[in-house]
Amino acid sequence: MPTKSARKTVLVVPLDWGLGHATRDIPIIHELLNAGCNVVIAAEGKHAALLGQEFPQLTILPLPGYRIQYAQKGWFFGPKIIQQIPQIIKSIKYEQKWLHQIVKEHNIDAVISDNRFGLYHRDIPTVIISHQLLIKTPFGGVIETILQKINYSYIRKYGACWIPDYAGSNNLSGILGHPKALPPNTKYLGCLSRFENRPDVAKKYDLLVLISGPEPQRSNLEKMVLEQVAALPISALIVSGKPGTPETKQVTDRIQQVNHLNAKELNEAMLGADMVLSRSGYTTLMDLVKLNKRAILVPTPGQSEQEYLGKFLMKKGFFYNVNQSEFRLEKALEDIKTFPWKSFEHEEDMEQYKQVVRDFAAAL
Fold it and tell me: What is the pTM of this model?
């Protein structure tokens, strides 16, 4: 067994649902390191590849994700997820057993779980990060009420619940992160983004396209964009969202496609673009408001959370939203010229999360 260190060791584990959970954990990890903690990460596949690229000095333990499969057609997204609930429960039981062994082997002093339900422990501090206290489904009503009760039953097993959003009415997650009743020991983190806003970055692109999310819908959107963008008189960079497989391709003399950019490169690309086109994944939304960028949102078909967020934030005037089935890039670029844009109003406290993490580290 390793010798106990005076520095506290924190295990950080992101959910394997797209890359957003891994990327939004990057600022959390940086702040833990700044607070003098050792950090151990648990992940697999592209999530491990992404975090390994950002933190090559850290230990990354292999831990299977929930490995959810997604429907080809958006209409079947909800039923497909429900069909896999037994598999998810099995994964939760496995990670609970795994955690108890890892705590002993690696002298773990605390755990921060980003939306994974089985990483609570009775002997050490544990935190769950979630912006989905109310889980949206295509079925609504009774189903959402039942899922919220199940959700809260797991959240209450943790010592704290951190919500990456703001507590007031001017927020990003709407009813997802602001239900009628909150779990105990809840804290709002504010915006959680790995990026930094800088005024000195020159414009390089008319459009930055961020392709992300689960297959097959990631590839479906990529195909649509590539078919439509080449005919338009604009400069564009398309980031395909495939870490671990570096590749760059010149689509036309004005359009470039890359498989992946690291955090610094993507930060620069976003700042250097007039407009961003992306999914309405929650981490992407936080990145956009941190950088004060305008965006065209195309929610993943059938993913109720993204569809809700797209409509909610378009109504607020923060972003323009269009369903993938109705997406026409030329029309969207024309529509945004007259869209009544509004700015998000929390620019002064975009680092609110840092104090929460520092307090957590100091209490270990």
Answer: 0.90
